[in-house]
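Case study 2.
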Amino acid sequence: MKNLILLLSFISSLTFCSKNVESQITKELIGKWSWIESSGGIMGKTINPATTGNQITIEFTSDKFFQYTNDSLALEMSYKIEKGRSIRVSEETFLIVYENGQKQSIEAEGNKLILYDECHDCYQNEYIKKQEE
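Prediction:
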């Protein structure tokens, strides 16, 4: 019985730690991000605001995602953060899972954010955090 209680305590502490990490990742995502460039696809192409003529800003709140193209709202969706398998790396990683089922793996460091589309021949999308207005 004592071993069962210890095991349950250990499992619950792991769950708590995982939730804390998810919460920290969500905190890092919250805010507005300016698109720098995207690269990938079948042709291994790089696109950016200069090549597309589009200024893209994305915004994360605690549960919503917004995409603005040239200052006009183009997309609004709910999202959640999950730990799961990525096609990009062998170990589990944190993923953004959007309400339409699309997934992106996350790499964030300081004011730089890279979102990797979770599909073959898709893009990696780089953003820089916007200063609060």
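The two ends are 57 Å apart (CA to CA).
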